[in-house]
Each structure stands twice: as structure tokens, then as C-alpha cells.
Specification:
427 residues; alpha/beta; Rossmann fold; 2 domains; seven-stranded parallel β-sheet; 18% strand; chitobiosyldiphosphodolichol beta-mannosyltransferase activity
């Protein structure tokens, strides 16, 4: 078990020797750090596009599990990071600390080596959090060594995600919160996905540096499919029986999204459709992959068979990146079960759905009104019964929601937001 830590120390020493021999930073060279699958990190891909459009030379450090969109592939330089073996994922909770002792030092050493030896030396580093540990500490150290400006893009609070796995009272969660607060306190620029997050972190964590709220926005190519495009897509992906209304949601199959509520809502919708001929049959498609997928698939199949569903068909899918917006563009209703582990972030899936002009039914939580207004661009629910009723009301026209895209046609694009709020803060 000491081997990973020893290897990490040796890598750090080698990194420092290399760093001492290097020249000054390049003027407009940027590094974007994603301790995850880069192509499945849309917000960071948008940052990359905006930096490239602003004339920066961009390297991206992350995991390369999914192919990048062609425009990014041609525009950036890949910087590979060590990817933890899949065997380390999904292990029992009791082994979490042991796995962390192996994984974190290796991740930290490789990340530091790549950041400090990257040429030309970046004058700017943009990092997403979470994951906060070891990312924030290593990136801060690398920026100190290379004299690079640091931008932290706060997507959520990492310790709250850890609490879902270990429990809020776990000592490891308390340690993680302290480390995240300390490591994240200092940056040249802090970006936030919501006003609520900015307010809370400035008040409680006393962040130092310039700050800006940068709301998520859907890509420009997201939108409704024409009837012919929809028919072609569904012919290629026959999720469920034809001529049904299509309800979609996406999930990472983790405890912060209650798929059980969706299953209960499906059963209640089945009962509604049996009683009321105006309520149409539906196909529910759940996209994504994650640790709880298999168990929920068994539960869905057993429930549908036991109750003999005829009006509801429910399936799971893992789509190519370019098929996901087509699914949203073909759907009739989108569902979000995101509850926010911190209470101050917002679900990107809802942004994507609204960008495709898709009526959204979203699970209520404190920060949701920054994105979804009940009766304006979506329906808000707090129970399986309310979700079933909301889907039925949208599909029967009892609740009319406009197909006008993301919060209306006057909402600023990502690039317009970024140019106005982020670009002036960069060195």
C-alpha cells in the first residue's frame, strides 16, 4: 500500500527538477483540467471552445474514454491522465478508504507531472470541481510552480457527493469538507453555475479572487427534430413500441437521483391511462450508465411484469454523444430527478432539454427556480403521484408549456455569456 505513495513522491521530485529547467509561460496558452471523461463533460468542452475562439492555445488534461466532437479534436492538444481501473469502482463502502489510499496519490502524481511539464507552459489553468480531491490541491501547487493564473469552475460541492456514499456523519466527509474549503479558497477567478452557489461560498467559505456566475446553456445545435427526422431516429433506435409518446430522462445511476420515484410514477401513470382514454400510452427511455443501473433494471422489469403494464414501456439506453440531442429533439416530455447533493447546483440535463424545446417535469429543490419556473417552462413535482399527473397533463394538453427553447428566445447563448462575464476576468 505504500508503493503508490512512494511512487507519487518520486514523481513529484522529478517534476520539480524538470520545472526548474523550464522557461517562462507562454502568453495565451491555457490548460483545461477535467478529472473525468472529457467528452462527457459538456461544460468544460464549452470552456475549451470559448478559449479557442478567443485565440488561446488549449491543452486538455483528462480521461479520453469517449471520442471528442470533431471541432474539438482538431482544436486542442490531448493530455492523458491515469484512469483508475474499473475494478476499483463499485467496491463495498468498507473498502473506500483503502481504495482512496491507492488511487489518490497516483492520480495526484500524474496530474502534477503533466501540468508542470506541459509545453508551452500555460499562463492559465481552468479546472472543474468536483472532484475536488486531489484535483484542487495539485492544480494549486502546479499553478504556484508555473506562475499560472487559476480559474476554478464550481459545478457542485464534492464533499456533499461523498456524503451520499458514506453518510453525512462520516469522518471522511468532514475531512473532505475541510480540505475542499481550504484548497478552493484561493484562485484568480471563481466561476459558479448558480447565484445561490456564489452567495453561499462567498459567505461561508470566504473565497478570495474575482467571481462570476456562468449559467449553463445548451449547445447551438440542440433543437426539435422535424417529423421526418424523428421517424428516422426512432427507426434507428426502436426503444419501445411505435406511435407512443416519448418521455426521456438521463441519469448517472447514483443515489442523488431517485429512479425509484420514476418507477412508482410509471406505475401510477399506467393506472391513470387505464382509467382515462385521453391519457396516451408512453415509452420512457432512461439514458446513462452508473453503479445502480443493473439493480434498477431488474426492479423495472419485475414491476412491469407483476402489474402487467400495457400503457407504459420503460427502457434504458447508452447513446453516442451525437445521438443524445436527437433523442431529446424527438421526445415529448423530459424528466429530471436531480435533487442536488448540495442544494445549490442545477441539472445540466434540464438545460439540454430546454435547449431542445422540450417540456420539462423537474423534481423540486431550493435552487431549481433559477432554471425552471413552474407553469412557464416546466412542471415541478415533489412526489411520484405529482410526476405521473404532470406527465399526463403535458401530454393531454391540460398543461400547456411553450416549445420556445431555453427560457425563451431572448436568453443569452453560452458564448455571449462567456464573452461578457468570463473573458474580461482572464489575464
Amino acid at each position: 500500500m505504500l508503493a503508490p505513495a512512494l511512487a507519487a513522491v518520486l514523481v513529484v521530485l522529478a517534476t520539480l527538477l524538470v520545472w526548474r529547467a523550464r522557461g517562462p509561460a507562454a502568453g495565451r496558452s491555457a490548460m483545461v483540467v477535467v478529472l473525468g471523461d472529457v467528452a462527457r463533460s459538456p461544460r468544460m468542452c464549452y470552456h475549451v471552445r470559448s478559449l479557442v475562439a478567443a485565440g488561446w492555445s488549449v491543452g486538455v488534461a483528462g480521461y479520453w474514454e469517449t471520442p471528442l466532437p470533431p471541432d474539438l479534436e482538431a482544436a486542442v492538444r490531448r493530455v492523458p491522465l491515469w484512469t483508475p481501473p474499473r475494478a476499483l469502482q463499485g467496491l463495498p463502502r468498507a473498502l473506500f478508504a483503502v481504495v482512496a489510499l491507492i488511487k489518490v496519490p497516483v492520480q495526484a502524481a500524474v496530474l502534477l507531472l503533466q501540468l508542470v511539464t506541459y509545453a508551452p507552459r500555460p499562463s492559465l489553468v481552468v479546472v472543474q470541481t468536483p472532484p475536488a480531491i486531489p484535483t484542487l490541491g495539485i492544480v494549486r501547487l502546479a499553478c504556484a510552480l508555473t506562475r499560472s493564473a487559476l480559474v476554478i469552475d464550481w459545478h457542485n460541492l464534492g464533499y456533499t457527493l461523498l456524503a451520499l456514499k458514506l453518510g453525512a456523519r462520516s469522518p471522511l466527509v468532514a475531512v473532505a469538507r475541510t480540505l475542499e474549503r481550504w484548497l478552493g479558497a484561493h484562485a484568480d477567478v471563481h466561476l459558479f453555475v448558480t447565484h445561490a452557489m456564489r452567495t453561499q461560498l462567498l459567505t461561508q467559505w470566504r473565497l478570495r479572487g474575482r467571481t462570476a456566475v456562468l449559467h449553463d446553456r445548451p449547445p447551438a445545435h440542440f433543437g426539435r427534430l422535424s417529423p421526418l427526422e424523428r421517424d428516422a431516429f426512432l427507426a434507428q433506435h426502436p426503444f419501445c413500441p411505435e406511435h407512443r409518446k416519448l418521455v426521456v430522462t438521463s441519469t448517472s445511476w447514483t443515489p442523488d437521483e431517485d429512479i425509484g420515484m420514476l418507477i412508482d410514477a410509471a406505475a401510477l401513470y399506467e393506472a391513470l391511462a387505464r382509467r382515462d382514454a385521453a391519457v396516451p400510452p408512453i415509452s420512457i427511455v432512461i439514458t446513462g450508465r452508473g453503479p445502480l443501473r443493473a439493480s434498477y433494471e431488474r426492479e423495472m422489469a419485475a414491476r412491469a411484469a407483476r402489474e402487467a403494464w400495457t400503457h407504459v414501456c420503460i427502457r434504458t439506453a447508452w447513446l453516442a454523444a451525437d445521438d443524445y440531442p436527437r433523442l431529446l429533439g424527438a421526445a415529448d416530455v423530459g424528466v429530471s430527478l436531480h435533487t442536488s447533493s448540495s442544494g445549490i447546483d442545477l441539472p445540466m440535463k434540464v438545460v439540454d432539454m430546454l435547449g431542445c424545446g422540450l417540456p420539462v417535469c423537474a423534481l423540486s429543490f431550493a435552487c431549481l427556480p433559477e432554471l425552471v419556473e413552474a407553469g412557464v417552462n416546466g412542471a415541478v413535482f415533489s412526489s411520484a403521484s405529482q410526476l405521473a399527473t404532470s406527465i399526463a397533463d403535458v401530454l393531454t394538453g391540460r398543461l400547456r408549456l411553450p416549445h420556445t427553447g431555453f427560457l425563451g428566445s431572448d436568453a443569452p447563448t453560452w458564448q455571449a455569456q462567456w464573452t461578457r462575464t468570463v473573458a474580461p476576468l482572464l489575464p
